[in-house]
Design a protein that fits this description.
Blueprint lengths: L6 E10 L2 E11 L4 E6 L5 H8 L7 E6 L2 E2 L5 H7 E4 L11 H6 L14 H13 L15 H14 L4 E5 L7 H18 L2 E5 L3 H7 L2 E6 L2 E6 L1 H4 L2 H8 L3 E5 L6 E5 L11 H7 L1
Parallel strand pairs: 3-8, 3-9, 6-7, 7-8
Antiparallel strand pairs: 1-2, 1-4, 4-5, 9-10, 11-12
Helix pairs in contact: 4-5
């Protein structure tokens, strides 16, 4: 099992240039759980993730890892605890899959320590878990978008972080591979106790796979808690500006959000009225 860590956001303000994206936000990441952040485009989800992984320094406030200011800790110490898969990673030209995944072991390498069997095992396991073992000798730039995404996830898994952060990890994946990747994250959480924080666009995938849901709008947290508490008709309307019905997912028992468009309501009934009926 992984070591339990605390990661807190305290009155953090974030932005780019003159633009404030996240304003005085507080957040405590539930240790040993799977947390998903949802929200409309440009609401601050990815910006918050960047700050929590030390890629973006707060303008005000601080991110605290195990009681210490994250942005003042040594880089390798942070990398042994936190792993991040950003939204659009770029691989060095010509690099093959096995070499890219091996780079996930960099935080565990020391000046007087050579690459060892433990590193080989971590890389092999990461390739195996993501279904990319057969791609090990292929150049990354020859892969499809979905294959490439799974390889990046493998690199992050090879790092063996105790806290794993992923920004839209199911991007470019077809539905079957989306389920495989999210199932894998559940396995890591249950078997190793890995704390997982991910940004997802698909509300129903977030509801099904996350223990804790955070809904953001306008750079603030509008609601957080279980999927049943967060994914309500009112919250979806406020956060996404979308009418919907929310029913029980017949497979998971979690909330299932069904969007209602202007042409979806029964004849003679407005979309707003249809929501009220639900």
């Amino acid at each position: 099992m992984t070591e339990a860590h605390t990661l807190d956001v305290e009155k953090v303000t974030l932005g780019y240039g003159d633009r404030v994206v996240v304003d005085s936000l507080d957040l405590r990441l539930p240790p040993g759980r799977i947390t998903a952040i949802v929200g409309a485009n440009a609401c601050g989800k990815s910006t918050l993730l960047r700050a929590m992984s030390r890629l973006l320094a707060p303008r005000d406030g601080r991110v605290v890892l195990d009681g210490k200011d994250l942005h003042r800790l040594p880089t390798k110490e942070v990398a042994r605890t936190l792993g991040l898969l950003p939204q659009s990673p770029i691989a060095p030209e010509g690099i093959v899959v096995s070499d890219l995944v091996s780079r996930g072991r960099h935080p565990h390498q020391r000046v007087l320590t050579r690459w060892g069997a433990q590193d080989d095992e971590a890389v092999h396991r990461a390739l195996e878990l993501t279904g990319t073992l057969s791609l090990a000798d292929r150049p990354v730039d020859e892969l499809s978008g979905g294959q490439r995404q799974r390889v990046w996830i493998a690199m992050t898994l090879a790092q063996q972080p105790d806290i794993l952060m992923l920004d839209e990890p199911t991007t470019f994946l077809d539905v079957s591979h989306q389920v495989e990747v999210l199932d894998l994250l559940v396995d890591l959480n249950r078997e190793r106790g890995t704390t997982v924080l991910m940004v997802l666009h698909d509300l129903n995938m977030a509801a099904r796979y996350a223990d804790h849901l955070i809904a953001m709008t306008g750079g603030t947290i509008h609601a957080q808690g279980s999927s049943a508490d967060v994914l309500t008709v009112d919250t979806v309307r406020t956060v996404f500006g979308m009418n919907c019905m929310v029913i029980d997912d017949p497979v998971s028992g979690k909330p299932l959000v069904i969007p209602i468009g202007r042409h979806d309501a029964p004849a003679g009934v407005s979309a707003a009225a249809a929501v009220q009926v639900s």
